[in-house]
Structure formats: C-alpha cells, structure tokens
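For reference, the entry.
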Amino acid sequence: MMPRFNPFPLVRADLRRNRLLVWVTMMLVAVSVATGIAVISQERALRQGSARAADDFDLLVGAPGSPTQLVLTSVYLRAQAIALLDADVLAKASVAPGVRYAAPIAFGDNWQGHSIIGTIADFATRGGTLLPVEGRVFEKRGEAVVGAGVDLAIGAIFSPEHGLHRAPDDEDRRADPAHDAIHYTVVGRLPARQNIWDTAILVPVEDVWNVHGLSLGHATDDKQLIGPPWDAGHLSGVPAIAIKPDSVAAAYRLRGQFRNARSVALFPAEVLNDLYLTLGNVRDLMSLLAIMTQVLVVAAVLMALLVGFLARRRQFAVLRAIGASRFYVFCVVWIEVVLLIVGGAAIGLALGWFGSNALSYWMQSQIGFAMPVRLGAAEGALLAGLILCGALVGMLPAWLVFRRPIAEGLVSS
C-alpha cells in the first residue's frame, strides 16, 4: 500500500540517489547567501568599529583644512602630515570654561612602526577612566605608557625614530643624533581598547617638542615639568587638540568658539556620518547585486530542478499508478525543493558568518580597529526572503508534476 500522507521516506530516498545534484544545488544557494550576509555584516561591523574607535574624542580641534584628514590622522593614526595649530589655541583651550582637559596630540616619531604620540597624562588615562593594567601613567619627561599591542615590557628603554611610521623589519635607518639622544622608559601599559591606539606609545608632549627643537610650553627652567598650565609665550604648535568637555552644552559651545578662521572644531561623529552616507550608498549597491545574484541562483536552481523532475516523470507516473495521490506527489516534489533551498541557506549562513569574521580579522590589521561581526535583522530578512522565494518557486515544478496525466508519464521517452 502506497503511503499517502508521509512523503518524507520517498524524499529521503530521492535526495540520497541524487547526491551530486543535491550538493551542487545547495552550494549555489550557499554562495549566494554567504555573499549577501558578508556585505551586510561587514558594513555594519565597519560602522560600529569606527564609531567605537572615536569614543575617546568628544571634540577635536585642528588647523583649517580637511575635516576628514584631521579625523583620520588624529583618531585613527593614519600617517599623514597635517598643518599645525597656532600655539595660543592650545593655551586658550586649556583654560576655556567647560573644558575638563584639552590634550595636545603631537605626532612625528615612531618606534618600530608604533606611533609615538606626545600628549598629557589626562588623555593617557582618558580623564582617569582608563587606568594602566600594569605600572602607572607617565609623571615626568622620559617616561612612556604603551598600548596593549606594543611589545615593550615595563622598565624597557628605547629611543624614538623620526617619521610617522616605519616597518619593523626596515634596517635602512640613517643615524639621527637628536632622536638617538633621547631615551624613554616604559612605566605603564594601558588596557586593550580594540583600536589603533593599542599600538601607540604615549609620552609627554614636551619630549616630542624637545626632540624636534621646539618650545616646551613652560617659562620655568624645570626640565621635568610636564602638562598644563601652559605658558602661552613658550608654547609650540600641535597637529590637533582633543578636548573633553564637561557637558553636552559645553561641547557645542566650545565647538562654536574654536570654529573660526584660525582653527576648525568638530565632533568626529560628524565626519563619520558623512563617511557612513557614502558607505550606505555602496552597501545599497552591493546589497542590490547580492539580491540579483540570489534571483539568478534561484532561477538556475529552478531550471536544474525542472530538468531533473521532467527526467523523473516516469517515476512519478508509476507512483500515481500504484495509488499515490496527486497531493502526495506534489508534496514530494515541493518538499525536495524547499529542503534544498533551506539546506543551502543554512550552509550559506555558516559560510557568511565565518567568512565575515575572517575578513574582519584581516581588516583589523589593516585599518587598526576591531570590527565586531554580529548577525542582525537584516541577515534574518535576507534568509527568510530567500526561503520564502524558494518555497513559492518550488510550487512550479510540483504543480507541473501534479497536473501531468498518468498515461503521459508512463509513455517511454
């Protein structure tokens, strides 16, 4: 007696007998799904990672020029030469009402590819919220605090090298007496922040000024004096100032105060939003291409299944002849199609997840900040849409088999 209401044994037998077709079909679907998931998750990861990397910079002040270049250089430490702010801007920012701290960000040197940043202790600890996991913050000239990714132990002594960056295996270093004469001692290590600052070395800004022959910001002869209060008549220019305001209202007031002909003040989020708009356009284009790819894949799968089911029309006719109902045969064909789509989508989900994580890990080494990969509603909608589309498309071959007369199917081809 032909089982009328349990098509799964026959479905299982058909899938085992046609393993090659099953795997080819599922892999086509999987590649399509993985591509869509990778595009969506990577764009989201880039947004979240870049925004988190800018969390330490509430307000950024720099010389007039490109806001994007200022953010990329100051926040993400992308090696570019930018104009220096006039010295008195730092002096005014340090004593402006509503400022918790105004930290100079001075570039120019490196150690084996790690950027050496001249700043103040308040910035190193982000106003006391980022305490070293080893040692302490610098308290005098010649001391350094390293990021979590810098391979220098507490107590290590090193000399800076001129330039914004240098590859660690570059042996062609010319003699530089000014830089060789200064030695830094590592006194602390900061906790991991999952951004480019994990690879930076922070030192008193006076040391960076000194090694480049600039004024040290203090009228006194005490060479161990570091940080504010500054003496405006002895200050040197800096590429950027990171300001920590007391409140949101103070942040907007300070931005207006330092946004003038001599300086530009901005919230890094402003620049990131402009970049996100561009990324959003690219994401939309890539998503459209991914959807078109899925449509083509589903169409190709449909054509392959139609050919396969038409080649098996005698088998279905025999099933009908021995007592199987039309609905039973319809269910066999439709379930096979849906299982192929669902199986391919599941494989694609796994491939997209692991591929996106691998790409994020590689990109982190290139751009300097972590890109957390998380699956969200967009990926779920992508999978649900594909499965729904597959379920609807699967009705076509099932319907063709459903309506074919028994006698026509039994005729030898």
Q: What stands out?
A: The chain has 14 helices and eleven strands. The radius of gyration is 32 Å.
